[in-house]
Amino acid sequence: MMSPVPINITADEDSSTEDEPIAYRDTERTSWRDIVKKYGIGVLCLVVLIVSRSIEFVLFVRIARKMHHYLFLISNILIPLGALIVDVPLLLFQIFVSKSVTHDMRRSPWWKYIVMGILDAIGLMLTIVATAFLTGPSIVNISTTIIIVHIFISIFATKARYNALHIGGALIIAISIGVQITATSQGKTWTTAYQAITKNTWFWMLLLFVANIPIAISNMLKEHMISTTNVDVFYMNARAGFCQLTSSIVMMPLIFIPFPQPYFTLNKFHFPFYITSGLKCFFGSNNISGDNCSDSFALFIAMLFCSCIFHYALLFVCST
Questions:
Q1: CA–CA separation, 289 vs 69, rounded Å?
Q2: Contact present, 44 and 63 (Cβ < 8 Å)
């Protein structure tokens, strides 16, 4: 609503005349409804993105804990396949409804997506294996090191520069990790002050840190592609996801790597049994000693649901 407001009014009533013009200016009255309409939807979408991603991460860890005998089945088949289930409808929407995926985008070379897929496959595989044997606070703290890794790689690879806020945030992350390492070295966890940590925790923490390196490189490649080429983010994720699933299947022989205990090392002659038992575990059936497969499928569906909420909220943000 635009309302005229006089700005040339004298204090002396006698000095004013009817013929003297009075200047007006327009001011905009901003009501609380306008503020909510302008900023509320954006804030709500941000909250939805954060909450859905956080819940998805928690469910991700829960599935790894429950199916700890079948970690490669989770990382190399189930989760990449689930990601495609989420990404493909978004891709179809972008192609046939919003028309944001052009013919030129579809002609972009495959080798870029193959590199992203391989890096994502390696990062996810190492992340799944490590998170199954770490406490919750350790997973959260070590996972944040991806920011520090991203900063270091971008400094040397792209000559990027960061301001004091970026460096300060990285220092806060480093301090929190130092506190976590101190607790770990004393055999304590955050959840229970004097609870013994899992066996070979240092190895799993290091493995989770190493997993951040290929993930950070893949993220940088995606950011570079988005900033330098006219590519739709959902189209890029779908193609990279397809390459990730393909790469993960090719990497399945890595399942025979003898990681430290309590990792379940597989004998090559038991591979068919591993696949069938893992699928049974996925649907809630215990097969070997130590299995805890109840609700695995329900957790997976809930994780996909949270992923759908995140991606569709992101689609709404990108389209407005």
A1: 10
A2: no
| Per-residue pLDDT tens over the stretch 169-184 | 888 888 888 887 777 6
Radius of gyration of the chain (CA): 27
Q: Which two tokens stand for residue 116?
A: 């992203």
Over residues 101-154, the pLDDT tens digits come to 888 888 888 999 999 999 999 999 999 999 988 888 788 888 888 888 988 888
Extents of the domains making up the chain:
2-134+198-319
Per the structure block, which two tokens stand in for 266? 């597989």
Q: CA 308 to CA 303: how far, in whole Å?
A: 9
* Mean pLDDT of the residues in the chain: 82
Is the preceding omega at residue 262 within 30 degrees of 0, hence cis?
A: yes
Q: Which residue has the tokens 């005229």?
A: 4
Q: What is the DSSP letter of 27?
A: E
Task: Label residues 302-314 b or e (16+ Cβ within 10 Å = b).
Answer: bbbebbbbbbbbb
- Alpha carbon distance 85, 81 (integer Å): 6
Phi and psi of 47, rounded to 5°?
A: -65, -45
